[in-house]
Amino acid sequence: MCGICGYFGAEAVKKVCDGLKILEYRGYDSCGLAYVGDGKINSIKTLDGVDELIKKSEGLSTEMVIGHTRWATHGAVTLNNAHPHFSASKKLVMVHNGIVENFKELKKNIDIDFYSATDTEVFVNLIEKESGSLIEKVISASKKVKGAFAIIVLSERGEVVLGKRETPLYLSTGEKGVCVSSDVLALDGEKIYALGDDEFASIENSKILFFNKNGKKIVKKCEKIEKNMNFSQISFKTHMESEIFETKTALIKTLKKYKNEDIFSLIKLPKNFKSVVLVACGTAYHSSLVGAEFFKSIGIDARAYVASEFRYGREILSEDTLYIFVSQSGETADTIASAKLVRARKLCTLALTNTPNCLLNRVCKSVLPTFAGREVAVASTKAYCCQVFSLYLFSAYLAGKRLPTVQTLKKIPLLEFPREQVEDIAKFEKVFFVGRELDHLTALEASLKLKEISYINSVAIASGELKHGTLALVDETSIVVAISTEKRVKEKLRSNLEEIKARGGKIIVLSCFDDFADYDLVKIEKFADFLMPIVSIIPLQFLALRVAEQRGFNPDRPRNLAKSVTVE
Ligand code: M6R
After folding, report:
1. 258 assigned to some structural domain
2. Are residues 239 and 167 in the same domain?
3. Number of domains the chain contains
4. Residues 407, 452: one domain?
5. Which of 278, 283, 386 maximizes ligand 1 atoms within 8 Å of its Cβ, making it the mutation to test the pocket?
6. CATH number for the domain harbouring residue 46
7. For atom 16 of ligand 1, which residue has the closest CA?
8. Which residue, 446, 399, 412, 407, is CA-closest to 531?
9. Could you tell me the residue range of the domain that residue 459 belongs to?
10. How far away, in angstroms, is 194 Cα from ligand 1 center?
11. pLDDT digits (tens, 9 = 90+) for 178-219
12. For all residues of the chain together, what is the average pLDDT?
């Protein structure tokens, strides 16, 4: 997580602050910058966000700046732990994204008084202890570090060295100078270079030299990288609200792209293709669960796994399986590690991502992009809908079915959850989401959304499972939101709701069926089955958003979380 940015050239302070503003989605616990001025290194840090950093650095003029926006891994959210971090002599300063897994072991051999609890302070002091030029020091220190990292190191003499392993780092050159950033969207400059794993670079007078892990100079070609992801404008009070409202446009764009461009036929399928394994985290895992159902419905065996489990699990990998890695950002550490594991076995890997040029796309053999546009809010909404939709479209393509029309998508309602019920739910400290089959999967996503941004304790469960334990939690202090769009099991769900009612639980039903009219019913329109997970999640995303607002929380910046999870 964490975003790093550096600029070396005219207007460096402004460029770094602009970059950090874009990178704030990667973590917002603290931010800071360091610069060379009067022959020494100075820094400015704050716990109050990039806007405050901009205020604090007003009037500052220098041509060498590195900056950081933090999601805390080692050490509490304090100014001491905020980046950039200095070496003991104050001759080096560094910004870092990643985790030094062996930092305790390394720390034992560095005999200084550490001022922070971070692994970064250990790393920068490790660099200082090495011998040779700055690039030599960085390369040899990196060899001793276990774990993923992206770093920019600045010396008091104005030397700049950067490097990375398993987490992104890009450079660009423009008229005014060289820019370095964790995300292409924060780059300023036309020619873009993507640093590979265990590659390093030094920047001197706008000249970039690239090195491999042995310190040998290498030549890197600049890449054509798509920076424009559209829809980044915020048209409502929060990014989350704007992004829910963009869902329909995103779905239509995805459908049109798939219809007009040869995207599916370029996907490399396994010989004797028999099954699909989907691997993802969080919301992307929930869309994978739905996707697995689509594949099963066309006769392809399919399972979905949480990436952090898959990468250390005992799954037997097989040549007749297509492994699909689903990720909005394409940067999620566990998902990428899982993809690398499968790719190393030379099996068929497909990245389903929303971010052009992301790391996951580089790891997998084929790419199936979604076209949701940039998603800024931590809570994933339109990207989830696009993932579900893409997985359906891919399954339909494999089964030789006709794809749906744009006209159908235009009819999808962006339905708000009724205000009265929102106010009701916001009062409870326990919210259960229940459903069966696909509705159970929607319940999982609805529950994650609610707890993520409103901090209400929420559980999602297949309603038939309630009486096997969880029903014990249901009482007058809890509320149950039931989802019913699956005709086959609606009577079964109804029986489960009666059981809840008998125990004094309050129930709200979100359904496309009139059968639940005797309950507090939020009625949604009936569409083709494959669209129902999308039609039903939209009001539930609104529910989470409005409850968070009602409770006075900023839905775009939930506590303890960040948009990109680049550490395991
Ligand atoms: O970028 P990814 O789709 O790989 O991210 C995976 C999860 O971190 C993400 O979906 C997370 O669960 C969201 N905050 C959910 O709203």
Report:
1. yes
2. no
3. 3
4. no
5. 283
6. 3.60.20.10
7. 379
8. 412
9. 413-568
10. 23
11. 999 999 889 988 889 999 999 999 999 889 999 999 999 999
12. 94
Is 168 found in the same domain as 201?
A: yes
Sign of CA dihedral 364, 367, 370, 375: positive
Concerning whether 207 is annotated as a catalytic residue, the answer is: no
Residue written as token pair 């305790």: 104
Are residue 423 and residue 397 in the same domain, yes or no?
A: no
Amino acid at residue number 226:
E
pLDDT of 227 reads 64
CB of 284 shorter than 6 A to ligand 1:
yes
Q: How big is the chain, counted in residues?
A: 568
Query: How many other C-beta atoms lie within 10 A of the C-beta of residue 467?
Result: 12
Neighbours of 319 (CB within 10 A): 13
- State if residue 358 touches ligand 1 by the CB under 6 angstroms criterion: no
Decide if 2 is catalytic.
yes
Distance 523 CA to ligand 1 centre (A): 28
Element (DSSP H or E) covering residue 161:
strand 160-165
Residue with the smallest CA separation from ligand 1 atom 14 is 379
Which amino acid belongs to residue 551?
R
Residue 156 forms part of a structural domain: yes
pLDDT given at position 229: 59
Asked if residue 502 and residue 404 are part of one domain, the reply reads no
Q: Is 478 helix (H, G, I), strand (E, B) or coil?
A: strand
Closest ligand 1 atom to 381 CA: 16
